[in-house]
Specification:
Layout lengths: L12 H24 L2 H8 L3 H8 L2 H8 L17 H15 L1 H10 L3 H23 L3 H24 L3 H4 L3 H16 L3
Helix pairs in contact: 1-2, 1-4, 1-6, 2-3, 5-10, 6-7, 7-8, 8-10
């Protein structure tokens, strides 16, 4: 007698509802920002009653935290010449800021919302610190300070260029940003 593999059960309706809510929330937060997005507009975009959003997520803050899953998609820079790593990181982050409204919404919201700030901190701590530790050959705890300094440059640049849209920063050519900010990031990465 041969045993057959169990047939996977179809996704539960609640999983589909949660997925629809999260997709609508990401879209609304990216388009309108945290303050302007409402449970009602998110529910309407998901095609459900607002009470269902509250049932699954409790409040807008918890919904935002759940919707703000974000992968920085950090490249493996370990084979790159050491002198080019800072500029490569800056180039990578410019691409991420320009290609994904979710990250921009998270940055906008983190300025005024504790849950969003905590989420952004977590993203940089769990994704950036391991990369920096690998690049510098340091334990993760020691690399955390370097990662924090790099995040200060990357987040500050994004805030000034894409959120506040400061004319002198917006007016900079991409190559100038990569060169100038890349030099600072390089100094944070390597002490020599």
């Amino acid at each position: 007698m041969t045993e057959t593999a169990p047939i996977p059960s179809p996704p539960r309706r609640s999983d589909a509802t949660k997925s629809a809510i999260l997709a609508a929330a990401r879209e609304q937060f990216a388009a309108s920002g945290y303050q302007a997005a409402t449970i009602r507009t998110i529910a309407t975009a998901a095609g459900i009653d607002p009470a269902m959003v509250m049932r699954y997520f409790g409040n807008k803050e918890k919904l935002f935290a759940a919707a703000a899953e974000f992968d920085l998609r950090l490249p493996d820079l370990s084979d790159m010449p050491r002198k080019d790593v800072g500029a490569a990181l800056v180039e990578h982050f410019l691409n991420r800021w320009e290609d994904d409204e979710t990250l921009m919404a998270l940055l906008r919201t983190a300025v005024t919302n504790e849950a969003a700030a905590a989420r952004l901190q977590e993203i940089f701590a769990t994704q950036m610190a391991p990369l920096i530790a690998k690049l510098c050959g340091e334990p993760r705890a020691a690399a955390a300070a370097r990662a924090g300094l790099i995040a200060s440059q990357i987040l500050g640049l994004a805030l000034c260029r894409y959120v506040l849209k400061l004319p002198p920063v917006v007016g900079l050519k991409r190559a100038d940003i990569v060169r100038r900010v890349g030099t600072t990031v390089q100094a944070y990465l390597y002490d020599n």
